Structures
1.
Amino acid sequence: MSAVQHQQAAATQATAAEGPERQAGPDATVERTRCSPRGRTEGEAEDGCWTSFTNPTAAHGRAAADHRRQAADHRAASAALGVAEGRACAGISPADRDASPFVHVEDIVGVEPLIEQNGPPGTHLRAPRALSSPSAQFRA
């Protein structure tokens, strides 16, 4: 995920936490009616059904906390990506940093596998004339 996608996911999770938070409270009640599949037995209501009432506050609180944790995780990942981008792109103008070298398809000379573990494929590019920073020409 990109930093922007992490920020969007964080906003989604923060919004998702609001629903369970609104549902929680000391007066929250869930009514559940169950009926016996075998029919009426001694001591049961005439129709073989009964109703129970529970307070779901704890479950709603856990759901809200989980959404808030996921939002915080996404915000942290976005921040980490921003720091990594800042280090990797030091000395490159914001305009050059935001323009993908792959926009200039005619300048892609070749692509080859990279032997490094977990590394991206190597890409050979001609330096597009639009790049203002000489160092940007070699950072594909």
2.
Amino acid sequence: MNEGSYSKVARAINEELAPASPVSRQQVYEWYTRGTRNAAGEPFPDPVRRDEEAAATKPRLFFSVPQAVAWRRAGLSENSMRQGRNRLYA
């Protein structure tokens, strides 16, 4: 399975979709923690693996990169953008 942390997901989205504004790992973190929904009404995918014993400087959550890219490919919901969420990340 192709999995990765927030940084790997952000890099894959930037490489595959080339959004107008590049996506950062902080944006991916916000999509996950806020439960942001895409235009299809789907929440950001849940992690496929957790490493609870990771060092403080290492990732603890790992996501399916293809699922995260597919989620972003659908676009962000207008409702979440209207509420101020992701206003810079469309």
3.
Amino acid sequence: MATDDDEWRTRIDRKKNIHDLLTTMLTAKDPPYDEMVVANARAAATKLEQMLFEKSADEDTYKRKIATKLESMASQIVKQRAKKAMEEQGLKMAEAPAAKTP
């Protein structure tokens, strides 16, 4: 039985939040995305949103948790991509002088 405090649960656009989590997760990989990658990301996003929804006492907490998770995931992805790019650049830089040596 829902109380007045739980009315927010019916107003939340959970599908949008799942979509936002899904698209953020997918940015961790380069496109194109095969069906299995999308299905796995969708399942993970749905499970994550469900957990955040259930653990939130009110609308503001839920929105804050979603925003914090999206920001955290995006930050991790940026760091991972930067590290990968630096490693790739480092390999290219290390290979170039060796190629010029007789």
4.
Amino acid sequence: MSFFQRLFGPPNIEKLKAKRDVKGLIEALDYERDISVRQAATKALGEIGDEQAIDPLIETLKNKDMRQATAEALIEIGIPAVESLAKALKDKDRDIHEIVVEILDKLNWQPKVHEFKAIYWMIKRQRKKCATAFYQTARFSLAGARAVDPLVTVLKDKKDEDMRKFAIGVLGQIGVQSGINELSIRVAEVLINCIRDQHQSVRDEAIRALKKMSDIRIIEPLVAALKDEDENVRKFVIQILPKIGVQLEKTEEVERLIIMLEDEDLGRSTDAAKQLGQIGDIRAVKPLCKALFDKRAYSEYKRIAAAKALGEIGDPSAAHSLVHILKGTDRKVKEAAVESLKTMGSSAVKHISGMLELKYNDRRTAMAAARALGEIGAPQALRPLIAALKSEDGGVSNAAAEALGEIGDQQAVESLIDTFDTNKHQGYKCSECIEALGQIGGSRATEALTHILEYDTYPNHKFYAYAAAKALGQIGDPQTVESLIAALKYPDSKVNEAAATALGQIGDSRAVEVLIAALDKSWLMEAVATALGQIGDSRAVEALISTLEYTGHRDGQVRISAAKALSEITGQEFNKDITHWRQWWEEQK
């Protein structure tokens, strides 16, 4: 707070706002005596929309009491704030990350730079997308530091054990994919340091990651770790070194650990399961399968450890037990079972396929087996899954269709089409088949989906039309444009919206005039504006400028979408300022 503020009292926010005194309002953000003054200054800066205020407002996000008001002001400023907000994702103050992501989401921002994608999805806890972005960052970085450094930052956060384990898993994948080079050495050093983490689950994750790496240059630091004062670290390193060619004398502990699996102390039995997985002896498979079904209270961690251990051992005979776990209600146990089944890969398919038959299994087992085959994704799973499409049980058939979509093999297309045609009048099994066709894509799937969209000669067609429009957008074939244009007039708003979104995803200029005409439909305006921005045709500029005046249902989001579309088409950044847009557009004519 300045000397003059202390001398003359609180700043007059209304007066500063009337004068559009941005500098004065920014100074008022530091007025410590009255939070209402700071909140009023924040709101005024948002309404004025001057870009000078963006960085000071982002700094104000660090104050919890001001966070909501500041977020609203930045949303009001809109697109000009996006670049600085994206940079704030890398701020050392992690407290502001989540609110920054919320603001960016409301501004319809999507990260395009791989590094920002990784950080963005990490903050949103979307771990699969985050991992993909990190791999892409490593691939396109010269030394990989841009991929590794954000993960090292996550590892320093001692409060979030799950995110540290996730970061270690991603580092392990980067190390494996990078081969023997400076990047793999950097990754190995980070992972070795994680062995000393205070949490055993984090140490276990680091060991698993190191076991997947074959870089002989990590031997020296591992051998040094044999002298670590932590007994667990020494045991883990003994298990790693043989994986990279260092033969050490190994004490046989398998039988003792198998007995320990039955220990009444769940902590000791859980540790035994983990150690059996690290040793990898096939004699442990049956006892570990039995441990999967421990029904005692608080046995979840033991069951998770048993599931993970079976994946580390990799014997496909354990697949049957792991699939049965998928019927349970313990989410983390099921996740561990899925990961282990994926690790086993095609070798487990034969053991799982027989579980699809209701003659020998209950429906929940068959559904779980179908999901497991989809997760594994091996071509050998196609035939049993295609056969399961004909199951009399709709749940089993739907699970098979979803699995075929995940595998994405063209060989499944005709069977999915036949299943839809057989059941379209009854209304079950159909939506899942449509979604799977969209995931698989190809000319035959496109043809079938177009037919589904166009012909409404059976009940429940609006649900099929909606799913078909979404699937066609996912495929992105320009040949479907005319059918999707026609779907804009379909007598159902959700179908209209899905068609508009699909036309934007395809990006064909033939849709421009029709989409412009659809801007007069309030329920479609947001989707249409977004689609026009994706297509990028200047014919839409004048209509989008007019849309900035819209008041009505979701008008704030509609105007944001229109402003974003205008920026995408023209390269200009006038946010929602209709006066500037019109002036600029007149100059272009």
